[in-house]
Write a sequence for this structure.
């Protein structure tokens, strides 16, 4: 159960019921009844113990990198997003997930249902759904972005970690250089795997070789040293 400033407005998620108004976050109230939701207003900015944790993250934000990423997003999607790299403007352009889903669809045409790209939603739960949809699609082939490069929904929607959002866009752009997609990427090209194949004979020979981690009998050693004997000029 949620603790709220205003009395919760409970909505049964069945057909014919009006969804909450703009800016409300929909949260399940009971695990026993997933159709029962409570709505609450947008999250406030970081406060209390969150402030010391969020401040260093925001300090790592690179506006030049963000500007390059947003320019790439604009070219790939055709959306008139701001390309100054300003954190607040990046947040406003991306927070509903619409532009991100258009980017995913440009990279892999048809991966996003057309009905989701008809218009931008102003409902909080739909915005978060679009962000999560983008994250899901970029983790799938052909991009296969690793989990550690993907941002959490709250990182963008609640503006908790815009640095990770830009890092994710960089990873997507870099991956587009090494896979066959309609969108041209930017950045350093990722290294390709250099797999080595060994025959059974070579593997068997390797078992008789003492690895360097076992030590070495080459070079200087302590052989012949006697720490109990003094150094004498004349023996």
């Amino acid at each position: 159960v949620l603790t709220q400033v205003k009395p919760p407005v409970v909505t049964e998620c069945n057909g014919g019921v009006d969804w909450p108004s703009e800016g409300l976050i929909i949260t399940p109230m009971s695990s026993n009844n997933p159709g029962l939701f409570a709505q609450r207003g947008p999250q406030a900015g970081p406060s209390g113990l969150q402030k010391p944790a969020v401040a260093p993250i925001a300090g790592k934000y690179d506006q030049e990198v963000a500007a390059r990423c947003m320019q790439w997003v604009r070219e790939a999607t055709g959306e008139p997003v701001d390309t100054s790299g300003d954190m607040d403007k990046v947040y406003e352009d991306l927070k509903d997930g619409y532009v991100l889903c258009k980017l995913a669809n440009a990279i892999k045409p048809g991966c996003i249902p057309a009905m989701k790209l008809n218009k931008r939603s102003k409902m909080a739960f739909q915005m978060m759904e679009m962000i999560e949809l983008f994250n899901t699609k970029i983790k799938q082939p052909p991009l296969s972005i690793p989990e550690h490069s993907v941002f959490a929904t709250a990182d963008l929607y609640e503006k908790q970690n815009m640095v990770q959002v830009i890092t994710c866009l960089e990873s997507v752009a870099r991956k587009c250089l090494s896979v066959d997609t309609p969108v041209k990427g930017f950045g350093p090209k990722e290294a390709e795997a250099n797999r080595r194949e060994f025959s059974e004979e070579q593997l068997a020979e390797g078992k008789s070789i003492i690895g360097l981690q076992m030590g070495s009998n080459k070079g200087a050693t302590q052989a012949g040293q006697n720490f109990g004997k003094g150094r004498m000029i004349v023996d």
User: Anything to note?
Assistant: Helices lie at 50-59, 63-77, 87-94, 98-107, 124-138, 153-157, 162-175, 200-206.
